[in-house]
From TrEMBL:
Keywords: Cell outer membrane, Membrane, Signal. Signal peptide: none annotated. One of its GO terms (cellular component) is cell outer membrane. Transmembrane segments: none annotated. Residues 90-218 form the SusD-like N-terminal domain. This is RagB/SusD family nutrient uptake outer membrane protein. SUPFAM superfamilies: TPR-like.
């Protein structure tokens, strides 16, 4: 075993302020202890759920980086920092694991407050439709949070009631992965019944539920259902499309393009923390990590990266060209966090169709794959067999979602992390138990019901 077990005696309970996710002006800080008693407090509590979802520990940086640091495509540029994750040296005392775990459970707890308390609110201005929408949005966010925990750590504790302190937490042991995914599905089914079928790229709707269902069924290898739910969104072509050129969904300070199914907003007073870590100091960043030379070369290769070379940029210092990620580039850091894009639905459907042996170049896996490649200014795929097509889809996802939380989770869910990453970098060693992350030791010290994942 290449890991030692470490003990950290640290504890922090994160109480995040709630700010309006639709506007740049902040609201007053709201505690989970504050009552939910009318329309205004219900809406404020829901804004608090979105704010926690977009926090720096979750989609505002840390959880996102857990998806692409262990990819063999990133280099760490600081002492410590992301070095262990980049090298697939997963430690139980890794601060980034603990930060993400805490942020996600805080999101769940905020959602639980809304789900539990809003149904009993008696306010004539809180109409049934509005009440259903608020509860449905909270259920969707709770589903997303439990899905993100499950794909990272396996089965987890399922807390479905709000708490205000560690001492108040019920004694609950970890559920299995299947049980955790079942809770995700139950929340999504509830949310789908409560939410409107409408376009809203910054708040959950029935369509946002379809996107997560497509992803959930893909992870569960339920190929027909993954195809069905991806198709629901692809067929809404008036609302969602692969915008061209590739950079059109993020460049030039755009937000909410037709590429986007669901993204999170940020502002000067609520910035996206990813930008500062990724950008070069000449552009106001701290440059703590960057795409490695091999990945830069691939993205800049017109036959491989195509238009996705827009995801990186460079500066020249001392006659040396220095490359950095450029998906998050705005100053101030108002870059959205991209949760679901229509390109993901095409690639989910392509994978699901390939797994069902529908490989057709006209209405099967190759058709969907080639649409994504065409948008990236690439020729049609030369893959022919089922296995070749599946590996082509895997590789397409690598470039399409370079700085989004997918690459590691893709390789882990397919069981290919060891084969792929060790072939890319001889210094990387992936052990079987590392396909899921270790439970943060700080959390185990706090909760006697929480058991560590095997072999950590």
């Amino acid at each position: 075993m290449k890991h030692l077990k470490y003990i950290l005696f640290s504890f922090s309970i994160l109480l995040s302020s709630c700010e309006n996710f639709l506007e740049t002006e902040p609201l007053n800080a709201v505690s989970d202890l504050d009552p939910i008693y009318d329309k205004g407090s219900s809406e404020t509590a829901l804004r608090g759920v979105y704010r926690q979802l977009s926090s720096s520990g979750y989609y505002g940086e840390t959880y996102v980086t857990l998806g692409f640091f262990p990819s063999a495509d990133i280099k760490n540029l600081t002492t410590g920092g992301a070095a262990n994750l980049v090298n697939i040296n997963f430690r139980t005392d890794e601060v980034l694991f603990n930060t993400a775990w805490s942020a996600i459970y805080n999101t769940i707890n905020r959602a639980n407050h809304v789900i539990t308390k809003v149904p009993s609110v008696q306010d004539p201005t809180l109409t049934t439709n509005l009440k259903n929408q608020i509860i449905g949005e909270a259920k969707f966010i709770r589903a997303l949070a439990y899905f993100d925990l499950a794909r990272a750590w396996g089965g987890v504790q399922l807390f479905l009631e709000p708490t205000v302190s560690l001492q108040e937490r019920p004694n609950i042991r970890r559920s299995t992965l299947a049980q955790t995914y079942a809770q995700v599905l139950a929340d999504l089914q509830d949310a789908e019944a409560l939410l409107p079928d409408a376009v809203n790229r910054i708040r959950a709707t029935k369509r946002t539920v379809w996107a997560l269902r497509a992803r959930l069924h893909l992870y569960k290898k339920e190929w027909a259902l993954a195809e069905e739910y991806a198709t629901k969104l692809i067929e809404k072509s008036a609302d969602y499309t692969l915008v061209k050129p590739y950079s059109a969904w993020f460049a030039n300070n755009v937000v909410g393009t037709r590429e986007s199914i669901f993204e999170l907003q940020y502002s000067a007073i609520n910035p996206n923390a990813t930008r500062a870590q990724m950008q070069h100091p000449t552009r106001g960043g701290t440059y703590r990590y960057a795409p490695n030379d091999r990945f830069v070369s691939l993205l800049n290769n017109p036959a491989i990266g195509g238009g996705r070379s827009a995801l990186i940029s460079s500066v020249v210092q001392n006659n040396t060209r220095i490359w950095f990620g450029n998906l998050y580039y705005r100053l101030p850091a108002t870059d959205p966090a991209y949760i679901f894009r229509i390109s993901e639905m095409y690639l989910i459907r392509a994978e699901a169709r390939a797994q069902q042996n529908n490989l057709s170049i006209t209405n099967g896996a190759l058709a969907d794959l080639n649409l994504v490649r065409d948008r990236a200014e690439l020729p049609v795929s030369i893959a022919v067999t089922q296995q070749e097509i599946l590996q082509a889809i895997e590789e397409e996802r690598r470039y399409e979602f370079a700085f989004e939380p997918h690459r590691w989770f893709d390789l882990a869910r397919t069981g290919r992390a060891k084969t792929v990453l060790e072939a890319l970098d001889s210094n990387i060693e992936v052990e079987e138990h590392e396909y899921i992350f270790p439970i943060p030791v700080a959390q185990i010290q706090l909760d006697k019901n929480l058991e560590q994942n095997p072999d950590y």
